[in-house]
Amino acid sequence: MPLPKVELRGITKTYVNGDVETPVLHGVDLVVNAGEFVSLMGPSGSGKSTLMHIVSLLDRPTSGTYLFDGIDVTKRTDVECAKLRLEKIGFVFQAFHLLPRLTAVENVMLPLLYTTDKPSSRLSRAKAVLADVGLSDREDFLPSQLSGGQKQRVAIARALVNNPTVLFADEPTGNLDSKSSEQVLNILRDLCKKDGRTVMMVTHEEEAAAFSDRVIRIRDGKIL
Ligand SMILES: Nc1ncnc2c1ncn2[C@@H]1O[C@H](COP(=O)(O)OP(=O)(O)OP(=O)(O)O)[C@@H](O)[C@H]1O
Ligand SMILES: [Mg+2]
């Protein structure tokens, strides 16, 4: 049995802003196995995005243990976590977060600026992942010239350009019509079922969750 990709034990998170403390996660235990496609569902404010930021190493828990791919990241430095992120993790946001002045292919190449790859190989790699999401004919378009579904596919290509083993997506279809949603969900499912990647997705929609293998439910910062 390969190691779980994500293993959380007793994870808590309290945001601190000046004198105000906001406890959000209250002892989350969770395992996501290699090659699984899981959905995370729960009411607004229940801590889904907070949890996604922690599992994708964008933020740190207040207490508890997080093993990512068998590595106790709670004991690693920020630099070590950033390196792990770059090598193994992709993240897709609800609102795409593409840079408006860069073309599709330039947006996709961005994460490779932090690698030692040659510029020519960065470009060919970016073109290849854009082709994988069906957007070869949109390489030189700006985000403003793309539909919502196309923007999200560019964002998925950007998340994949480093060939991550795990992809996290926070409401990836939250801003999309039903046809574009289905396209994006089929891509996520293929990334798991055909490429063997692990995918963890937040969604509010049962129809979207039905594309995944398993639904994890969270309420008031606790897994049900
Ligand atoms: N940086 C922050 N500082 C203080 N409180 C925060 C911060 N970020 C989030 N929160 C609070 O944490 C709680 C959980 O927020 P989170 O974004 O994780 O919810 P969510 O489940 O993703 O909700 P939604 O479905 O609306 O996206 C909310 O009550 C929110 O106000
Ligand atoms: Mg959220």
Description of the structure:
The protein has 224 residues and is α/β, with parallel strands linked by helices. It has a single domain, classed as 3-Layer(aba) Sandwich (Rossmann fold), CATH 3.40.50. It has helices at 48-55, 78-88, 104-109, 119-132, 148-160, 178-193, 206-209; strands at 6-17, 20-32, 37-41, 63-68, 71-72, 89-92, 166-170, 198-202, 214-219, 222-223. The strands form two sheets. Strands 6-7-8-3-9-10 form a six-stranded mixed beta sheet. A four-stranded antiparallel beta sheet has the order 2-1-4-5, with helices on one face. Strand 9 and strand 10 (222-223) form a beta hairpin. The longest helix has 16 residues, at 178-193. The radius of gyration is 17 Å and the shape is globular. It starts with 5 loop residues before the first strand and ends with a strand. Adenosine-5'-triphosphate binds next to strand 1, strand 2 and helix 1.
